[in-house]
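FORM 12-B: Structure-to-Sequence Request
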């Protein structure tokens, strides 16, 4: 039985099987710990998996490393690790129980993802090629966390799914940061988008 049925998303049989395993684990663990909003669980395929998979097409070619901030249940980071196994994905999550879940998903799906049980602002990891974060914080806060990595790697790409507040968040962030960006429409919700950010720098007076 095929798990991912959205015609806008193409995945191999192996990837589909791994995502189905992941979904089964999500439903199992959700009974014990709150991984995702309970109201989204019945439509987890679209709300979490397809919503994460659509980011894969925006990852630059030759990307080797990706960090997912505040990974939670692994969306989008773990999904991207499954969809793009050639990329070394690190899932940064401060909640120990959610890290246990992520490690279990990694083990059961056979996907090598690095699970990092740390607070974002305390990590000393070197700059990656790409950073993702979903439903974590506003753009200004995300940029504050990412600015040191952007200084280390001027080619850093940030991919952040956002909702109806996207344009407002961009305007606020522009008061403190300089950056270029594109807004890509979501295939899951007309009110959502993915903001791709490049050349992030602190704004100089």
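FORM 12-B RESPONSE
SEQUENCE OUT:
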């Amino acid at each position: 039985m095929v798990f991912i049925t959205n015609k806008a998303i193409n995945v191999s049989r192996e990837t589909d099987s791994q995502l189905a395993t992941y979904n089964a684990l999500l439903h199992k663990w959700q009974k014990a710990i709150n991984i995702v909003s309970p109201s989204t669980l019945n439509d987890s395929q679209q709300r979490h998996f397809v919503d994460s998979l659509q980011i894969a097409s925006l990852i630059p070619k030759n990307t080797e490393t990706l960090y997912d901030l505040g990974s939670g249940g692994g969306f989008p980071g773990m999904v991207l690790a499954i969809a793009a196994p050639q990329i070394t994905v690190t899932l940064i999550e401060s909640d120990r129980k959610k890290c246990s879940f992520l490690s279990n998903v990694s083990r059961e799906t056979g996907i090598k993802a690095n699970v990092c049980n740390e607070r974002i602002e305390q990590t000393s990891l070197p700059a990656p090629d790409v950073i993702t974060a979903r439903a974590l914080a506003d753009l200004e806060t995300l940029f504050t966390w990412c600015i040191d990595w952007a200084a280390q790697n001027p080619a850093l790409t940030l991919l952040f799914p956002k909702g109806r507040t996207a344009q407002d968040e961009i305007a606020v962030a522009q008061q403190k940061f300089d950056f270029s960006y594109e807004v890509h429409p979501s295939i899951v919700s007309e009110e959502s988008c993915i903001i791709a950010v490049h050349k992030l720098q602190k704004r100089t007076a």
